[in-house]
C-alpha cells in the first residue's frame, strides 16, 4: 500500500519551510528497523495526510493503517523490499537523540517492469527539506537496485508536483508514460506521471 492513497508522489511542499541547518546535523541513511515504526508513522502522516480541521477525526485511522501496513511489510521478510530512513542526531537538554527526518521504500513491483524496482513513500520532514535529504535517499535506492541486480528504478509523481519533478529529472529519471486515473477524469485532478531511470547508463 502506498500511504499517499490519492496517488504515489514525493511529498515536497512548494512553501519555504523553516529549516534546520544540516551542516550542524550530519545525515545518516540506514535500513529501517522495527523500533523506527512510530517515528516513520509520524513522518508519513504529516507528509501525506496533513491535518485539516474537517478531517481531524480521520487522523487516528490513517495513523493506525500506516503503522500496521509498515509492520506487515517489515515482518514479511521479502527479499526484494527495503525501507530506508534518513536520521540526524539532535541535541536535547541531556543527550543527543536520533531523529528520523526522511524515508523511502523500494520494492519489486512486477506489474511495472520485471527489471525494475519501484520507489514509493519518499518523504522528508518539513524543517529538513531542500537540503539534499531526498537526493541522498534516492542515491541509496540506486545502490540497492544495483546490488540486487536490477537495471531500472521506477516511480510515480503528480504532474503538478513541480518540486518533485525537478528533483527526479535532475536525478536522471525520464518520463515513461502519463497515466489517467478516475480522479483525473471525474474531477480534473492532476495526472500521474510514470518515471524511470536506467541504472546501466551510470556505468557508461
UniProtKB/TrEMBL annotation:
It comes from the Bacteria. SUPFAM superfamilies: Acyl-CoA N-acyltransferases (Nat). InterPro entries: Acyl_CoA_acyltransferase (IPR016181), GNAT_dom (IPR000182). It holds the Pfam family Acetyltransf_1. Keywords: Transferase. Residues 27-200 form the N-acetyltransferase domain. GO terms for molecular function: acyltransferase activity, transferring groups other than amino-acyl groups. PROSITE patterns: GNAT. PANTHER family: ACYL-COA N-ACYLTRANSFERASES (NAT) SUPERFAMILY PROTEIN (PTHR47443), GCN5-RELATED N-ACETYLTRANSFERASE 4, CHLOROPLASTIC (PTHR47443:SF3). This is GCN5-related N-acetyltransferase.
Amino acid at each position: 500500500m502506498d500511504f499517499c492513497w490519492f496517488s504515489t508522489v514525493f511529498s515536497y511542499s512548494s512553501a519555504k519551510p523553516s529549516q534546520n541547518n544540516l551542516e550542524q546535523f550530519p545525515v545518516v541513511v540506514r535500513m529501517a528497523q522495527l523500533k523506527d515504526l512510530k517515528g516513520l508513522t509520524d513522518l508519513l502522516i504529516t507528509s501525506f495526510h496533513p491535518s485539516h480541521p474537517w478531517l481531524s477525526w480521520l487522523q487516528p485511522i490513517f495513523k493506525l493503517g500506516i503503522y500496521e501496513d509498515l509492520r506487515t511489510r517489515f515482518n514479511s521478510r521479502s527479499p526484494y523490499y527495503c525501507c530506508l530512513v534518513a536520521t540526524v542526531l539532535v541535541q536535547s537538554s541531556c543527550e543527543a537523540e536520533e531523529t528520523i527526518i526522511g524515508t523511502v521504500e523500494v520494492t519489486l513491483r512486477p506489474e511495472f517492469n520485471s527489471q525494475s524496482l519501484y520507489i514509493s513513500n519518499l518523504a522528508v520532514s518539513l524543517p529538513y527539506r531542500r537540503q539534499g535529504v531526498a537526493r541522498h535517499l534516492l542515491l541509496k535506492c540506486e545502490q540497492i537496485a544495483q546490488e540486487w541486480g536490477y537495471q531500472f528504478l521506477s516511480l510515480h509523481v503528480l504532474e503538478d508536483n513541480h518540486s518533485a519533478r525537478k528533483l527526479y529529472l535532475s536525478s536522471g529519471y525520464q518520463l515513461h508514460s502519463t497515466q489517467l486515473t478516475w480522479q483525473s477524469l471525474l474531477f480534473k485532478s492532476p495526472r500521474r506521471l510514470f518515471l524511470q531511470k536506467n541504472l546501466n547508463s551510470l556505468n557508461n
